[in-house]
Each structure stands twice: as structure tokens, then as C-alpha cells.
Amino acid sequence: MPAGTATTVTNTMTLPRKPEAVSAARRALSDLLPEDSALQDTAPLLISEVVTNAVRYASGTRVKIAMATTDAGGMFTAVFDPDPSLRRGSRAKDSDDSMESGRGLNLLDMLADSWGVTTVGDEGKWVWFELAQPAGETRPAA
Fold first, then answer.
1. What is the Cα–Cα distance from 82 to 43, expressed in whole angstroms?
2. Of 26, 91, 98, 106, most Cβ neighbours within 10 A?
3. How sure is the predictor about 7, in pLDDT bands with cuts at 50, 70 and 90?
4. Which run of H or of E encompasses 12?
């Protein structure tokens, strides 16, 4: 989180490292954001990608998720897994539409205002991302 950004941790959870963790995290995140938030589309997509990576590639039996909102309407989300290694996974290239996976980090690059990985010694790592609420922007009513 950038210095000086006021946040409130509004949800933390520990989930089994199973595919069902992805939908549980996405539901929790969607419940956290106001219905008219412009982040309602982007945030669930990004948390799906980060949790999917933890489920597919990390070790251990559980993943931890922390979600915080900012006073300005943005959010910060972090996913912890007990695997401290920073493996080099495959990433889809812009010109390679045939890849069925490898787009998660590209999506973070394109859609998150900032993101990164923070290791916690030999205990594991947090993969985090931050989204800012665009000034004066809300999601269009359905």
C-alpha cells in the first residue's frame, strides 16, 4: 500500500487450496464493494487470477486472503500462500491467442494500478494488487 493511503481491512479469510477457493474469494470481494463501484468488474477478475495461481502453483493446503477498501473508494487485495518461491510461470504473449493459460500476470499488468509480490522469509509470499476508484466514476445502473 502506498504510504499515506488510509485503508480499512474489511475481510480476511483462509480457504482450502482447492479450485472452489476462487469463487469464494470472488463472492467475498463482490460483497465488499458497493454495487455502483466502478471496480465491480475488474476486482473480481483480478482476484480470480491471483487465487487461481495460488491454487494451481503453490504448495500447502490453504491460502489466506486479505481485502481492504481505501477512503477514496479504491481497494487493496492480497493473497498469501506458504510457498516462498517465485517461480517463472508461462505468460501468454500478446500475439499468442492459442494459449489456454498464462494471462493472469498480463491482466494484473494491464488492469491493476499497482501489484507485486512480497516474500515473508521462508514462510511464504503475498501477491497483492491495488485498484483506485476512478474519480467521479461509478458503475452504470443495469
1. 23
2. 26
3. low
4. strand 7-16
Please determine, for residue 58, whether its predicted confidence score (pLDDT) is greater than 70. Answer: yes
Q: Residue 102: which of 33, 36, 40, 56 has the closest Cα? A: 56
Rounded to an integer, what distance in angstroms lies between the CA atom of residue 119 and that of residue 79? 12
**Cα separation of 17 and 131, whole Å?**
25
Determine the residue type at 119. Answer: T
Q: How confident is the model at residue 32 (pLDDT cuts 50, 70, 90)?
A: confident
Q: What is the pLDDT of residues 80-97, one digit of tens each?
A: 999 888 765 544 455 455
Cell numbers representing residue 61 in the block: 493446503
Give the orientation angle of helix 104-111 with respect to helix 42-57, to 10 degrees: 150
Cell 483480478 -> residue: 46
